[in-house]
Amino acid sequence: MTAGQVGSPPPRPRAWPVIRWILRGLLAAALVALVALIVVRQTGSTPLAAPETTPATTAAAGPTPSATPKATPTPTPTPTATTPADPGTGGGGTGGGEAPQPPANPAPVITSFGGTNAVICPTPSEAPAPGAGQVEPPTVSLSWTGTGADSAFFGIGTKDAQAEPFSSVGVNDSIAVDFQCPQASQIYTITLVGPGGATSRTVTISNDGYKG
């Protein structure tokens, strides 16, 4: 050992500053914990105010009003209309007010009747040479249908084929006849006869050709 080293203090360990900072931290933490404990105790010792209770007010129930009965109106009788008696029946008879009854057997009905509308009669110049025959007249074709009849008649040049029949035909039938040239027109009639009477219908066929 040298003379200069006699009496000098021993060197401090290097960990001393670290230990000192740790101690300071522990002391600060203890101080904070102490302050927090004091605050908690003061807060817990203060009594909480009890909530005020408002007394409920009980309303006194009054008497329930009773319903007043209503008077039931008396129905007014409805006057009955009186039908005046028909003066023609002698006061209350039933003969004058009834509708007429339909006949037991209605007349026949012609539902359709028609056919040829017009013909063309030939001129004399169109006739063949003597001895070679003659010109055929135009043909009239007609047909008809009907109901409610049990017989029928066809007539030419009359409006009542039953009174002046050309031929007896069927209720639903047809016919073909020669036109009477050189007439300007001709009428053809169908008449149906049944239990309810007779019904006639007429058509007129015109000649658009030679009329003489």
From TrEMBL:
Residue ranges of the region described as Disordered: 47-107
Feature: compositional bias, Gly residues: 88-98
Keywords: Membrane, Transmembrane, Transmembrane helix
Organism, scientific name: Herbiconiux ginsengi
TM region(s), chain numbering: 21-40
The name this protein goes by in its record: Uncharacterized protein
Compositional bias annotation for Low complexity: 47-71
